[in-house]
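User: I'm designing a mutation panel for 3-hydroxybutyryl-CoA dehydrogenase and want to avoid disrupting the core. Could you give me a predicted structure to guide residue selection? Please restate the sequence first so the numbering is unambiguous.

Assistant: Good idea. Sequence first, for numbering, then the predicted structure tokens:
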Amino acid sequence: MATPLSDTPLSPLRTVAVVGLGTMGTGITEVLAAAGRDVIGIDVSETQAARCVAALEASTARAVERGRLTGQQRAELLARVTTGTDLSAAAAADLVIEVAPESYEIKQQIFRELDGIVRPETVLATGTNALSVTRLAADSAHPERVLGMHFFNPAPAMKLVEVVSSVLTAPAAVTAVTNLALDLGKEPVAVGDRPGFVADGLLFGYLNQAAAMYEANYASREDIDAAMRLGCGLPMGPLALLDLIGVDTARTVLEAMYTASRDRLHAPAPILKQLSEAGLTGRKAGRGFYTYEAPGSGTVVEDALTPREDGPSAAGRPVRSVGVAGSGTMASGIAEVFAKAGFEVVLAARSEEKAQAAKARIGKSLSRSVDKGRMTAEAAASTLDLIRATGTYDDFADVDLAVEAVAEDLEVKRQLFATLDKVCKPGAVLATTTSSLPVVACARATSRPQDVIGMHFFNPAPAMKLVEVVRTVLTADDVHATVREVCAKIRKHAVDCGDRAGFIVNALLFPYLNNAVKMVQEHYATLDDIDAAMKLGGGYPMGPFELLDVVGLDVSLAIEKVLHREFRDPGLAPAPLLEHLVAAGCLGRKTGRGFREYAKR
């Protein structure tokens, strides 16, 4: 028996019904009308339908003011949109996009009613980001015409559309919707049916871990958000993003993901339930992780949890000279940062030759800054003069702060701290730049663990604005105060955290990267589609596989092993595909091949 949809291509989807006229439905309506489609907007609430029209009138008026539309084009766009409360208005549609609340009962009722209203060849798309498209399709009279069309908020601005096929979806329906997405100026990504799909599947696990980190009182909400913005170049921190999405929505998505995966990383953090049930659902409620000026406002106002600018509890120690141990990119970058801020710097390496090579690297960096007009030649020369390169750590005898930036090897660091303990004067602060190893292990290698602290810079140190300040249970208050004061002088944003694997950034970043590898390993999506999804749908500056190849697959694997060993969560176990690539010597850009191949330099 023939089905309504065969492999024969469908005619262009000219008339589209949008069911559900909340923020997302209104945005999709605007996108469709702007692309010349006739749109039938339907919502059970007359008030919501009226709000949709008012929002369209306001947004198109702004577009005219900004020169993006003419008055005539605006009038034509608005004329293509009709709204109402009766689902029977969808009878004329070639495509129906449902963006009702995330409830199987509500969505299934809509699809059942549509079965008796629309033509047999009409495509039915759900905008869900959490529920099973297959389950919705199976309950429909014609499951072959049901698929997912997942837009991202705000729909007019966000380029990504995930086109979700179930095992029941006809290829003709997928092709028609994909072509429509392209015609709307969007970037369609083909994905299979699993909760969260690609973008939200990766994003919500990360958001959940950030919520759990905050709930554990490991770091403040402001420091968690600042760390991810400044350390990863993200447009928003995870807790602010949860407030924007809606804490209740995030909880619903995570519940669906956990039901499907049974991965503890997807089990909603208890704080999400607590906030949701208290009605503190984020911006829309005026309060979530943060407090807002009014419901719907994006303006954060102070509340009882807002950090007070009272200054540290202890005065810091004076710091005039800084010793930097190491000769790699990180060490030379840190030395450059301190010298630019006017500190006298001793750059020490295992040999005079390595130290001079590191100073020469700094000279080249300063020259590039001069070429780009960021500093004068005189300032560059005086900055370089503040750096003394040496092949012995004995020259750290008079420094006030010693910063270790050697290989990420615990035994190497312990030996170095034992040396610094002998060489540095009493009262000198000893700091490690480790990104994943325990700071307290470095501290215990000395006779003065109270003077040891973590200062995790990010590469390249001259450009990156973040420093994670890592206190151990032994670190003295005045040592912490000293490092906070030094960070301010070198114009870095300091965030406080405790001494546990990954600190803030790596503890949130690398599980996300690992989950992306698992998606490819399971043949769920391609490298290119995942990278595109996270850049276009999540606002990430780089896709996960671009970033893995830049960081280095060996470095990434080492950090993931440390996280897995510390937290003992099966979901943190490194993806076998990553281990296989490292074993094969495919380490990323530095070897010319990682997840992708690169031209030889």
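For picking mutation sites, this is relevant: The mean pLDDT is 94. The longest strand covers residues 146-151.
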